[in-house]
Amino acid sequence: MIARSPGARRLALALYALATLLSFPHELPGIGAFDLGLLFAWLGPAALVVGLDGLSPRAAARAGFLASFAAHVLLFHWFIVVTVGYGGMPLVLGLLSPLLPAYWVAQFSALFAAIWARVAGRRWAVPLGACAWVAVDWLRGWLLGGFPWATLGYALHRDVPLLAWTRFGGVYALSFLAAGVGLALGLLMLRMRRRLEGRAGALRSAGTIAAFAVGVHVVGALLSLPADPDPARIRIAAIQGNIDQGEKWDAARRERILETYLRLSGAAGAQGADWIVWPETAIPGSLEWDPEMRRRIAALAERQDALLVLGGMGIEFASDEGGPSAYYDSAFVVGRDGAIQARYDKTQLVPFGEFVPLRGLLGRVFHSLARGLSPNDVTPGPAPRALELSGEDPGAAALRVGVPICYELLFPDLVRRFAADGAGVLLAVTNDAWYGRTGAPHQFLAMTAMRSAETARYTVRAANTGISAIIDDRGRVLERSALFEEAVIVAEVPVSRSAPATFYARFGDVFAGSCILGALAGLLGDRLRSRSRRG
Prior knowledge:
single chain, 2 domains, 15% strand
């Protein structure tokens, strides 16, 4: 039997690891970017089913952990670029940096594997397993702050009909569909190998799986939302300055960096941009503390007659005469008159990037990488909230926008709160220079696109070194820049004036919560049946 042969089992688990790696976009020298997620999203769970067949829950957890760990060490290779290239870590230690995030993710894979080993032979194994997969995905994105990178549903970010389901269940709806189909395929392969399924039965099972997959695509394609009858149409520019991460906080390069953004913003103004968006921490200094910096940016807003949304360093002062007491990763709104109208402070910070968890214990060993932004830890903002910007002309009614900053875009429930607060468009600002020329910028763009699909809101993404993009309200990337080039993307973007259009934007992770309850109920029922048999 395929599952009980040690060699076949190892091969199946290796295929699961390979499918997990290839489910997400990558970039290779000489090849460029490639994305095979539409194929491997389904094959990964199928290979895992075959690899775990016949194992006890304890042995399955061990096997699932090792396979997932191997896959994610390779998937998170870009941590080496972050820690060595820009964090100054010695190469020997930097080569070990992918181990920690891979270890974290692999623990949750082990949890799913143990659950699957308990329920694989049950009648409702596939829906129960899909619920368990979603429950584990959600837990990974929540526990201890969460790290939801490479959640299975993101592998289907280019499957436009399926993206419609995210309006109800977020990215977890796609995890459920991919896991469900993959688990069913894996069980079918095992039954065929054992000759438990005759040719006619196998064809019926395969037909059922295919019909389900086609059905959810057809229904997704037919799902539609009531269109906003009167959206504002704003010409919005995303500015990509292409500033090397090693130069961003170099005082000697400060003038050149500012001139780059002023020049590119002038080009955007020449194309009729009404709103101009700079990336995360694009301002090479303090807009609130440096009067000369404030004067030059105010002059830009007045000269271009445009609203500016600028990533920069927010500061809190202890008193009128005291120095800074807190530093924030912020987004500023500068009006056409040059005045600072609003500031949003990033709420979800990067562990070890912008703050050191358990600083009293770990602070002697680790320091945060964002030392140019803050001499110590960055301070989180209070909560996600929408900001008000004026419309097509200075006399138009104000429009509400969400400005998620970088790492916040990984968290679906956080970003949907901008839409719930009335944001009619997402102006995403980020700095992906840390990742270098790896698959990470492409994977991050896929996650950003998912946020548009979940909230049915356009996203204008301004990234320091790319990938900057215009994403429509179905999650399709309409325009995108190249990596590590200066770029100006200008597009007319509909900004909704209506209330949140999607179930997910209004109510959040109801679907994921239902899957958690379903998985717990199934495990409890299985345990009660086992006790009954023993009794």
